[in-house]
Specification:
Layout: E1 2-7, E2 12-18, E3 39-44, E4 50-55, E5 62-67, H1 68-71, E6 74-75, E7 82-86, E8 92-95
Parallel strand pairs: 2-6
Antiparallel strand pairs: 1-2, 1-3, 2-7, 4-5, 4-8
């Protein structure tokens, strides 16, 4: 699983990759850093996820595509993750879907 979340206290977007480490059912596991206002921005099960990101407004818009696998290694779900970008309310992001791959599978 690859996820991008916001750490409000640090004012950072964080990226993390992890494998599910439990077979426990009907229990909730928090996989982002605990803190008031922290939230998940984007999540995918793609093995090689690419994130399209846009920051800024007007003439100051910056766009980019990021290969999350190059930014964040696969770690345990409790790990904080890697810094992705400074937090801004004007930031937009979405996963880029690969052409012709069909429906993604959750399990191998």
């Amino acid at each position: 699983i690859s996820a991008v979340y916001v750490d409000i206290k640090a004012k950072q977007f964080m990226a993390k990759r992890f494998k599910v480490e439990t077979t426990t059912l009907k229990s909730r596991f928090l996989f982002i850093k605990e803190g008031k206002g922290n939230y998940v921005e984007a999540v995918t099960t793609d093995e090689e996820p690419i994130l399209a990101m846009q920051q800024g407004r007007g003439a100051q818009i910056r766009k980019g595509k990021l290969k999350i696998a190059k930014i964040a290694d696969i770690t345990g779900y409790r790990a904080v993750g890697s810094k992705l970008a400074d937090y801004s309310k004007s930031t937009e992001m979405e996963w880029i879907k690969k052409e012709g791959t069909g429906q993604q599978s959750l399990f191998e």
